[in-house]
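Researcher: Quick sanity check before group meeting.
Model: Go ahead. Protein one:
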Amino acid sequence: MNATRLGRLMDAEMRQQPAVLAAMADRFTDIGARAAALFGDRGPAGVAFLARGSSDHAALLGRYAVELRTGLPTCLVAPSLATGYGREPDGFRGWLLIALSQSGRTPEIVELTRRYAAAGARVVAITNDPDSALARTAHYTVGLEAGPERAVPATKTVTSQMLAVLALASGLGTGGMTAAQAAELSSAAAQLLTDTAGVDRAAALLATVDRLAVVGRSACYPAALETALKLQETTGLMAHGFSTADFRHGPIAVTGPGTPALLLAGSGPADTDTLDLRYPLTARYAPVVLAGTAPEATLTWPALGHLGECLLATIRGQQLALAVSRALGIDADHPTGLAKVTLTH
């Protein structure tokens, strides 16, 4: 089969991202204002995020953004504490719970959202189905309006979730991503999607190995986790995402001549730490693929404020996953043993 016919759905849905992000950017200020209005003048006591899979990576970006803008306590909810151990949520009265699910149908996410609402949290749902069970449990729903997504690897719903959490954070405090920066994302995404030369070079390397470290810090850390997941599910590559700081504490030992590192480093203050990793990796003879805003990067993206650059790094990761899967003769649309909706309990 012609390689370009492999992953056709994933490719088409990736290319819809500029339009999806533009539509979300048009609602950026309103989304933040409506979330803030749930609490009046007092604001939330804290912010909790509830998600699984790719949605969890968008939630992690939201956690960074909320802490940066507000200084509020934030957390990522561990669903198994309730579903596996029977621990009911306590102490969340006056908190904001942001529940993310692309389908809005994951049973544990829906059930835990109900429990947190019953415990006194105000709930915002982020979902691509505004009529889903998750949406019906929320006080306010941010519909992604991304259109149907048929390929198993989520693409446009992930980046639109990321922009949605940045919009919610914008309503809670000062600083962070602005509406003007959000408006620039669409054209930046379109630029990336037509620029594939660096992607093809990186894919030629990664198609020859069976394991890979994907490393980033701060806003690039969620993108590193998401890129690793995309490579795992589309290619079967043993890719693992790491925080740059954690990577230095031991996992760097997995790299070497046959185990490359993909470094994601944007324009944020913590990204210098990731750039500096090139030196110990070179000393280990580990091949390095650099993606980011540095001129020497193999995969580049424009400087757009480090929070928004998480979306651009994520798009680069999607391109890379598709290119590697095609080089290996794998249809990324239908990875073996995976389904579009995972109904965890």
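Researcher: Fine. The other one?
Model: Protein two, sequence then structure:
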Amino acid sequence: MKTGLFCNYDNHHQDARRAILEQVALVKQAESLGFEEAWVSEHHFSESNLSPSMLVLIGHLAALTSTIQLGTAAVLLPFHNPIRVAEDIATLDNLCNGRLLFGIAKGGPFPEQNKHFAISMGESRAQMLEAMALIQKLLYETDVSFNGQFYQCDRLTVYPKPLQRQIPVYVATGDDDGIGFAAKHSFGLMGGPPFSLQRLRNTVAKYRALNSSGSEDLILARFFHVARTYDEAVSEALPFIRKFSQKMTANAAVVMQKSSSGHKPFDRTNICFDEDYLLENSIIGDVKTCRDKIQLFQDELNIGTLAIKPSSYDLQKNLESLTRYNQEVRNYV
């Protein structure tokens, strides 16, 4: 199992420059500790997470690092022109010397994003899958012609081509169409911090029933904080967990109110934002608790990469937590 850092560019102190510098410090610390990957999320219109221009941020990280792989977690494809995404991804792969990992998603329960990008929530999954099909062609083929429901091109070749022969692709999905698409192309899967273990089990089982060759390529993101005692870890992480819970519960309520497409319920078998649920499903606690939780996820899911999201408001506490993970947790699971 590889270890990754999950990067949300958290704006804990209402200071954009500080948020960027603190995230860079965490990525540099992760690289120095031998973490294999760093995954950057995409969020829009959020004062809490300052990563709307995810690919720009990854370009910045590419210049400041040398060994850690850099991943998109994930490009929200319905909000982007896939031709531009193909150009940007290929350019980034060259900038980071072939260290790029490419995660995609349709966009989570953030109604404001769909509203302002004028994208129907009911069509966003279909747009994601079609966009990715076009991007794959554009990255590796020439004179591409494509005539889809949402996107078209005629004898198009984009430059540059990626440095890697094939950039690894991961799909954040629990939907049958998304799982089938990932399995068909042997793409990996991604699971977000609030995804329940039951949902992840079901997703992985469906994938493996269709394709066993890429089933071990699961990126699991989890909120994380390890401290000397369980109570100390929870106390340090709770303000972050509480704020996340409140924000996402409000978003989920709006999604369910406006949904006309049979949206799956937000509950403890699927995705849940209750504070106690988030604490239970995160990797937060003393060393033994964190070891046991990671071992459970690994036993149940055969994780390819565990992407841990530092969950304290204090940079120094997060740096200490990463070091403690590396010294006392990582080699025991």
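Researcher: One line on it for the slide.
Model: The longest strand covers residues 218-226.
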